[in-house]
Known about the structure:
Blueprint: E1 3-5, E2 10-16, E3 30-32, E4 46-48, H1 59-73, E5 77-78, E6 85-88, E7 96-101, E8 104-109, H2 112-125, E9 128-133, E10 136-137, E11 140-145, E12 150-154, H3 156-165
Antiparallel strand pairs: 1-12, 2-8, 2-9, 3-4, 5-6, 6-7, 7-8, 10-11, 11-12
Amino acid sequence: MAMVVEFDLVLEQMDVKTTFLYGKLDEVILMKQPKGFEVKGKEDYVYKLNKSLYGLKQSPRQWNRRFDEFMADIQFHRSHYDKCVYFKFPFKAEFVILLLYVDDILIASNSKSKLEKLKYELSKEFEMKDLGAAKRIFGKEIKRDRKRKLMYLSQELYLRKGLERFGMSNSKPVTTFMS
């Protein structure tokens, strides 16, 4: 079953490159010199990390904190109900909503100019890859009927992959009533 949205919406995706390298560390972290990169005569020395690094337990949290600070600086509000949702209502009839999932970003807006401004601000602060119009995100396929101003979200592909994974792709469907 697909969910239907009935208004004109600009929906685009972005990807943050080297996500966990943006985090700032709160504590002192020392690490051994990586194999192949030892300094001759100082093999017993260690490095003090100045920034977050992939593989550290702190990296995801520090990245999230860094992103949250940036969004607050550009006057976006963080949802109290879902900490990965940021929003801004610059004018009464306009809105911009950003959804963050680790390094994947989905931006929705009814104003193309406001969406482009946010993409520009994100690209100034972080190294980003602009993926353009969203076609699939978080396991959901996005289909649009622009003439009728409709958007469909479907998990069909996600469900088919799950059935294949568990050897159930030849199972027969059964109708389940919901109320």
